[in-house]
Specification:
Radius of gyration: 14 Å
Helix content: under 10%
Structural class: mainly beta
Order of helices and strands: EEEEEEEEEEE
């Protein structure tokens, strides 16, 4: 059984930093991409950042220049360094791991970690 466990969320003041971690455990074939998404109550889950096994990254415009995604392939772990946090970054952050490509892709999700940024 594949599990993704996020950690690192919490309460921080505006302008502060947090580092999220996501560890993937269980029997899983080669992970193609890992990513972080966030979802506020009543809103759709939105992409924050993704990183491929080769290190290619993609960011939402709202976090470019402030957030950095990285991963340790040997440890099946992804990180999200969040700097210059804003109150609007407050929400639950979810880790994603994707195996395969196209119609054979499979997505795995963590249960989320709450980030709260106070003004």
């Amino acid at each position: 059984q594949v599990q993704l466990v996020e950690s690192g969320g919490g309460l921080v003041q505006a302008g502060g930093s947090l580092r999220l971690s996501c560890v993937v455990s269980g029997t899983i074939f080669s992970i193609n991409a890992m990513g972080w998404y966030r979802q506020a109550p009543g809103n759709k889950r939105e992409l924050v950042a993704t990183i491929t096994s080769g290190g290619d990254t993609n960011y939402a415009d709202s976090v470019k220049g402030r957030f950095t995604i990285s991963r340790d392939n040997a440890k099946n772990t992804a990180y999200l360094q969040m700097n210059s946090l804003k109150p609007e970054d407050t929400t639950v952050y979810y880790c994603n791991a994707r195996t395969g490509r196209g119609p054979f892709a499979m997505d795995y999700w963590g249960k989320g970690t709450l980030v709260t940024v106070s003004s």
